[in-house]
Amino acid sequence: MRHFIVTVVGACAAVLVATGPVGTAFAQASSTATGVSRLMNPAVSANALFLAQSSSDDDSYGENNIALQEAEMQFSAVVDPFWKANLIVAFHPPHHEEAAAKAEEHHAGFEVHLEEASLTSRSMPAGLGLRIGKFFLPFGKHAPLHTHQFPFVRAPLPLLAFLGDHGLTDVGAELSATVPAPWYSVAKVYGIDGGVAILDGEDRDLAYGGRLINLWDVSDNATLELGLSALTGPAGPGMRQLVYGADLTYKWSSGSLSHGPAVNWINEVVLPDPDGKVGNPVGAYSLVQYRFARNWWLGLGGGKVADTAPVEGFESVNLDADGLVDYSEFKANVTFTPSEFSDLRAEVSYAETDQDGYEDLRFSIQWNFTIGAHPAHLY
To answer: How many whole angstroms separate alpha carbon 143 and alpha carbon 137?
Structure first.
């Protein structure tokens, strides 16, 4: 018996000498070289989006090239029992003509854009939700999407004309609540600094907005969503910008087949109503996607805007007496999506103006990949 005890004690001593104090081996397995636990690291993901395009109207390098359209890095983590955090940094070519021309001259140049840096509550009373920091504003169905989530190469024409060329992101706070109704309904209200492109960020007045989402199950395999949005903010000394929006989305998927036939149909109207407006600005678009095979989607879309200032990327020669123009756009694509982490898209689009016979036929090839723990996309 004494010999057995000595043997066991000797074996334990050998293990301690080899691994250090009790628990050290476990700590090393779950910590970095600095001793900081890996459990504290955020989930990290990266996305790269590439675009090859050719334009029949614009022969500039920026519209006829193969380039990195955007790269995005995302960091997500639970901060504590009360908050979870999200940080998104995007790298993309300059959106403004002067900066783009300078970058084109050197065939290089990227801008760094902090798209999101926000905290979202994990436990609020009465089912409320709170988000603070910088985030995509919940206006409409398409505006909150990241570039690599777009169903087509470019955002719909009305959004480019009236909401800016790179989404609506700003610093502020958003409060959300479930609306008591026989169907699923959520209301969101927010106050922001007013630094988005369509507002006058130099004005001290804040901007405010809201969105109401209503979702119905029309069958076991289909849903219908109706959204209403509004945004108001400073538009110069003593003036306010006001934009309304309404969107209707129908989604259907086969209940009998995994990755079987599916339909996504998005319709949206954008109605600006600023102080001192000229003309009657309005825009609308419709996009439909159909999954006709396991990894293949067919997309069709069209849009129209009236009484807008010239839109970057849609050139126009002759404007009306008020300096405004009307645009129309039609597009079609086919997308191969082998998994949720990559896809390849071929697209053809046609744009024209009513005033001067401007026409642009554009061909595009777009591909992207995602690595890391990327959060789920919006429904």
So the answer is: 8
Q: What is the pLDDT of residue 153?
A: 95
The one-letter amino acid code at 299 reads: G
Q: What is the pLDDT of residue 229?
A: 98
Find where tokens 């879309």 sit: 301
Neighbours of 55 (CB within 10 A): 19
Q: How far is Cα 195 from Cα 171, in angstroms, rounded to an integer?
A: 8
Whole-angstrom distance, CA of residue 94 vs CA of residue 78: 33
- If 0-12 CB within 10 Å is exposed, 13-18 middle and 19+ buried, where does residue 285 land? buried
State whether residue 314 is helix, strand or coil. strand
DSSP structure string for 245-292:
EEEEEEEEE-SSSTT--EEEEEEEEEEE--TT--S--EEEEEEEEEEE
**Cβ distance 51 to 365 under 8 Å?**
yes
* pLDDT above 60 (res 37): no
> Is-contact 373 363, C-beta < 8 A?
no
Task: Give 145-149's long-range contacts (Cβ < 8 A, gap of 24+).
Answer: 145/378, 146/47, 146/72, 146/88, 146/90, 146/115, 147/49, 147/69, 147/70, 147/72, 147/90, 147/92, 148/47, 148/49, 148/70, 148/72, 148/368, 148/370, 149/377, 149/378
Is 247:271 a contact under the CB 8 Å cutoff? no
Q: What pLDDT, in 10s, does the model give residues 235-255?
A: 877 788 899 999 999 999 987
Q: Which amino acid is at 370?
A: T
Q: Assess whether pLDDT exceeds 60 at residue 34.
A: no
Cβ proximity of 339 and 352 under 8 Å: no
